[in-house]
Design brief:
The complex is a heterodimer of chains A (about 230) and B (about 800).
Chain A (H helix, E strand, L loop, with lengths): L2 E6 L8 H10 L25 E7 L5 E7 L8 H5 L5 E3 L5 E3 L9 H5 L6 E5 L2 E5 L21 H5 L5 E5 H14 L18 E4 L17 H11 L1
Parallel strand pairs in A: 1-9
Antiparallel strand pairs in A: 1-8, 2-3, 4-5, 6-7
Chain B lengths: L12 E5 L3 H4 L1 H14 L2 E5 L5 H4 L3 E3 L6 H14 L5 H7 L12 E2 L2 E2 L2 E3 L5 E3 L8 E2 L2 E2 L11 H10 L3 H8 L3 H12 L8 E5 L1 H4 L4 H14 L10 E3 L6 H6 L6 E2 L3 E2 L9 H8 L9 H13 L24 H9 L5 E5 L3 H4 L3 H8 L4 E6 L22 E6 L8 E4 L4 E5 L12 H17 L6 H5 L14 H9 L1 E2 L18 E2 L39 E2 L27 E3 L4 E3 L90 E6 L15 H6 L4 E4 L1 H7 L6 E6 L2 E9 L6 E3 L2 E3 L1 E5 L33 E7 L1
Classes of the chains: A alpha+beta (about 230), B alpha/beta (about 800).
Chain lengths: ~230, ~800
């Protein structure tokens, strides 16, 4: 059964524990930052920052402050996988999109293809490696959690329960149940169908467009379609 | 806390005032969220800034720093005017019916009894701040109609704080304030629970104690104390600050909140007992607690004949020795040496440049810490010339929290044992190891002679662990818990303490925490049972809550006078007609019928009833220095004159000297903006640890000042620009954070800009920066001397 994570943005308090837990579990170094003008640091995902929480002030109807966790969405039909002609990236049956070979040539196709600006490159002596969230799936290797039936490190660290790990199908049902039970939610599960559907699902009490989620399929959707056609 | 963190899930409405739990106590938000999901808990956040907590609030009420009393008194007025208070609770469980002296009054911001001598010295005679007596009995009017009864006195007092006046003082828009009042006062119904959470935003003011009292009074009026989901809940600033307060880190206390011995009042044991023991209340047991404490410290040497070695105790000299007073004395050259142990005052202290300078007067300084803190490195700080500083500095490498074992007491009074996870690196040692070796070295010196060696030579100090380098912490724990002198067996409760030398107990409120649970076979603080039969999150066999494992104090108030729970779904205690059936450990005599305890649920105060009026009644009286009820005064530095009276500031505030007393004039054009200080989730306290943690420095690298978009436009400052913030005490350079999260407020028709700075930074560590506390005032609360960190005035210019 494919796994996923449900993010209830109404429960996130912006504590950024997930952001630190990710670095801690995956042994990713800190980078030297300077004050970015906001509470966000580092400003973007990178080869050593696989998840981050954005602080979003919305001021159209009174002041609101929302926190949005970003990471690889682990698409059901991943454009990055479709774009990669070296077979480096793979959609696993367990759900995560992971790096499965060291044949990357650094062509940037995956980066261009991704609608969420996720894949990043690490260059070591001219050799490229794609670095991004792997949903703590590292089969047989030291960073594995998912393969051992453990939730991802970010979910484990979440203080309020805003992140919930489980089977994607069950999480989707849960998301719809929550939306049905409380009028505060916008009636939309982000990731159910967006960009061909994603393993990470989000529910919120403000429209997703205001939170910076790509809402209309970019050109990237072509890659999704391509991936779907390729994999049947 | 009267209650505890998990209990937040039982609240119908929570008011967070002077606290930003989402950043400073994030786990609190888990339980608030749980309540929201299971019972629709409403959250009101009252804060000068739109914080991360405000992001999740149902109502966000902005207010100007330092105006909490007006906000809270206005809410009491709203409850009384609209009949929203819980009358049966108020009549039975508070002193509302007590008659106050007819001569008690408040005139233009001053209570009766105020005098100012020719040389400007102010004082209060508390003669009128008292009850009317009929012989020994206090006169009462249970109808609450007598114009001199506490309820009527309070009603008149708070009537001046109507919505419009409160809004003019606080800057909270009237409509938002009304909505906050209506929502919070809905908890005045007997079957509703309202909870007030607070932290340093309430206490760090020149009237911080009165701020806390105002919260307590509001909660009494609404019947919210002693019930599940209610309470007055102080969220402490560190994982174990509750524990260290319990152990008397404050200079005016002995462990367990016994008053410190004072040479100006107590020359022998009997003096202490006579002057510190109230006739009524649980504190009437003071002699048992105190004598047992002396037995714990001096063992067999302590006998009835020698006053249990009373004269070996160090004693106060009647002079202020709070934090700022210490630095003032250091500046005056009166203090020669200092230990800074797990504390980094040269980032955390107020007017911190003056403290840094004062430190140069020390002959020696010992710092026990995990890193070389600003305090340890003061001699090489920017602007200092090490060649001119003669202080000898010793840095003792200390083990971090997870590198040693022992208990940590959380804000909810849960004393939880924590096991060591890893060994400390290098030469780092546990605090207990350092204290043990230090004491032994000192004793060795005294063995060769010294002034007054008896207490040092004879103190019980037997914590050695055979074959181990570390002392045996279980021996320390047993001494704190208490034991019977005859057989050394751990006490299970302070109920068995004696004042005849047959029991020893280092801290009476901890009695029982080191007693073995007969069922789980571990000492109480090591228990980890997840059984919670009540469903209220009491978890009676998870760790130990002082006192006597009681999870919610004053819980007699959870039931009506006849013993019936106000709300059966949140029952803590219940009389079934023949006996009490309790979910929590009773905070009253559960061996007697409810009528016997119906008018005495507040067992720690001489009145036995909650104080809506802090009378100067008996020992451990409720009267605070500046009055029996809170009154709004302005912070010592304010952009406006007091709208509540002509008395601008708390008249009882102790002014400081020299650099510690620099204050801008009211409405100073030089310093037009209000400055408040705050904390971030990414850093902890003075940043000694977190500013050395790369992952956290990455998240929050630099100090900044939050300002509104309107102020930024006026100053022509963009977010990320470097600015200089200045006050009468100094100036700091930092980055501007222009944010919709802070807005100007309209104070009495005039727009006032508010800015905020996190105070975590200093000149040491991986992530360094200038310290916000260079800017803050040293003048403090009249009762506790906690400095007014949370409100002062400043100027800002583009640097």
């Amino acid at each position: 059964m494919a796994k996923g994570v449900l993010v209830d943005l109404t429960q996130c308090i912006g504590c950024r524990s997930c952001q630190v837990a990710c670095k801690q579990w995956n042994n990713l170094p800190a980078v030297r930052t300077s004050f970015s003008g906001t509470r966000d640091n580092p400003l973007t995902l990178s080869k050593v920052t696989w998840t981050k929480v954005e602080h979003k002030f919305l001021t159209t109807k009174g002041t609101k402050l929302k926190f949005v966790k970003r990471q690889c969405m682990h698409c059901l039909d991943p454009a990055c996988v479709a774009a990669c002609f070296m077979g480096v990236l793979k959609k696993s049956p367990e759900g995560p999109v992971i790096v499965v070979s060291d044949t990357c040539i650094g062509c940037y196709y995956c980066q261009v293809a991704c609608p969420f600006d996720v894949p990043q490159y690490e260059w070591i002596r001219g050799k490229a490696r794609v670095r991004k969230c792997r949903l703590c799936f590292d089969p047989g290797e030291e960073y594995d959690r998912l393969g051992q039936n453990k939730e991802p490190a970010c979910v484990k660290a979440c203080t309020t329960g805003a992140l919930k790990f489980g089977d994607r199908d069950a999480l989707l049902e849960e998301a719809k149940r929550r939306i049905g039970a409380d009028a505060k939610y916008v009636n939309y599960v982000y990731g159910e169908k967006d960009e061909g559907g994603t393993s990470w699902l989000y529910i919120a009490n403000v429209p997703f467009a205001e939170l910076g989620f790509p809402t209309a399929a970019k050109g990237a959707s072509l890659f999704h379609a391509f991936h779907k056609a390729k994999t049947g | 806390m009267t209650n505890h963190f998990i209990d937040y899930k039982n609240s119908d409405v929570i008011m967070m005032i002077g606290s930003n739990s989402a950043e400073c106590h994030p786990m609190a938000m888990r339980w608030i969220e749980r309540g929201r999901q299971t019972r629709g808990t409403k959250l009101i956040v009252v804060d000068p800034r739109f914080t991360k907590s405000a992001a999740g609030a149902d109502i966000y009420a902005p207010l100007r720093p330092g105006t909490d009393i007006a906000f809270l008194l206005g809410m009491m007025n709203y409850a009384i005017e609209n009949g929203l208070y819980q009358k049966e609770y108020v009549v039975n469980y508070t002193n509302a019916s007590y008659l106050v002296s007819p001569d008690f009054k408040l005139e233009d911001g001053l209570f009766s009894g105020f005098t100012k001598s020719a040389d400007g010295k102010v004082s209060y005679s508390t003669a009128t701040w008292n009850y009317q007596k009929d012989g020994d009995a206090i006169k009462k009017d249970p109808t609450l109609e007598n114009p001199n009864c506490v309820f009527q006195v309070l009603k008149r007092h708070v009537a001046r704080y109507d919505i419009s006046t409160v809004s003019k003082i606080t800057g909270t828009p009237e409509s938002v304030y009304r909505q906050a009042c209506e929502t919070f006062c809905s908890s005045g119904k007997p079957d509703k629970a309202g909870n007030v959470l607070y932290a340093m935003g309430i206490t760090q003011h020149t009237y911080g104690s009165q701020n806390v009292r105002a919260i307590a009074m509001l909660q009494l009026l609404l019947g919210n104390i002693g019930i599940a989901g209610g309470g007055v809940n102080a969220q402490r600033g560190e994982s174990n600050v509750q524990g260290s307060t319990d152990m008397a880190m404050l200079f005016h206390l002995l462990p367990g909140y016994l008053g410190m011995v004072d040479a100006t009042k107590h020359t022998k044991l009997q003096d202490y007992i006579d002057k510190e023991t109230p006739k009524t209340s649980f504190w009437s047991n003071t002699p048992k607690f105190f004598v047992s404490q002396l037995k714990a410290w001096f063992g067999a040497k302590a006998t009835k004949a020698n006053d249990y070695c009373f004269n070996w105790l160090p004693k106060l000299d009647g002079v202020d020795h709070s934090h700022v007073a210490i630095y003032q004395d250091m500046a005056a050259g009166k203090i020669k040496g200092m230990f800074a142990w797990g504390q980094n005052p040269l980032v955390g202290g107020p007017t911190v440049d003056a403290e840094r300078k004062a430190t140069e007067n020390l002959n020696w300084l010992v710092v026990a810490d995990v890193f070389e803190t600003e305090t340890a490195a003061f001699w090489k700080r920017p602007g200092a010339n090490p060649a001119n500083i003669k202080t000898e500095v010793f840095l003792l490498p200390a083990a971090f929290s997870y590198e040693k074992e022992g208990t940590v007491t959380n804000s909810g009074r849960w004393v939880q044992y924590r096991w060591k996870a890893v060994d400390p690196p290098g030469d780092a040692k546990s605090d207990l190891w350092i204290a043990d070796r230090l004491f032994k070295a000192i004793r060795k010196k005294y063995e060769a002679g010294g002034k007054f060696p008896d207490p040092i030579l004879n103190m019980v100090w037997n914590y050695d662990h055979a074959g181990e380098d570390e002392p045996d912490i279980s021996k320390v724990a047993l001494e704190l818990n208490g034991y019977t002198v005859a057989d050394g067996k751990a006490l299970s409760t302070f109920g068995v303490l004696k004042d005849d030398g047959s029991t020893a107990c280092g801290c009476w409120i901890y009695a029982g925490y080191w007693a073995v649970d007969p069922e789980l076979k571990v000492v109480a603080c090591k228990r980890r049972s997840r059984v919670d039969k009540s469903g209220l999150g009491l978890y009676p066999k998870w760790s130990f809550a002082w006192p006597v494992n009681r999870r919610i104090v004053y819980n007699r108030c959870a039931a009506d006078p006849a013993g019936k729970p106000w709300d059966s779904s949140r029952a803590l205690v219940s009389w079934d007609g023949a006996k009490w059936v309790n979910n929590d450990v009773a905070d009253f005599n559960a061996a007697v019928s409810p009528d016997k305890t119906a008018t005495g649920p507040f067992i720690m105060v001489p009145e036995g009833q909650g104080r809506l009026f802090g009378a100067a009644y008996g020992i451990r009286a409720g009267a605070l220095k500046e009055g029996p009820v809170p009154e709004h005064y302005e912070p010592v530095e304010s952009p406006v004159t007091n709208l509540a009276s002509r008395q601008q500031n708390n008249p009882m505030v102790l002014r400081r000297k020299g650099a510690f007393d620099k204050v801008a004039a009211t409405a100073s054009p030089e310093f037009p903006y209000v400055l408040t200080t705050f904390r971030l989730i990414e850093h902890y306290q003075s940043g000694a640890v977190t500013r050395n943690s790369p992952w956290l420095v990455e998240l929050m690298p630099e100090v900044f000042v939050e300002m509104s978009q309107t102020l930024a436009a006026q100053l022509k400052v963009k977010t990320g620009d470097t600015v200089e913030v200045s006050t009468a005490r100094g100036q700091v350079k930092c980055k501007a954070c222009v944010t919709p999260g802070i807005s100007s407020l309209v104070i009495n028709g005039r727009k006032v800009e508010i800015v905020g700075m996190p105070w975590h930074w200093g000149y040491q560590g991986l992530g360094s920066g200038e310290s916000a506390n260079v800017l803050t005032v040293s003048i403090g609360d009249a009762n506790t001397q906690i400095p007014e960190y949370k409100a002062c005035v400043c100027n800002i210019r583009k640097a």
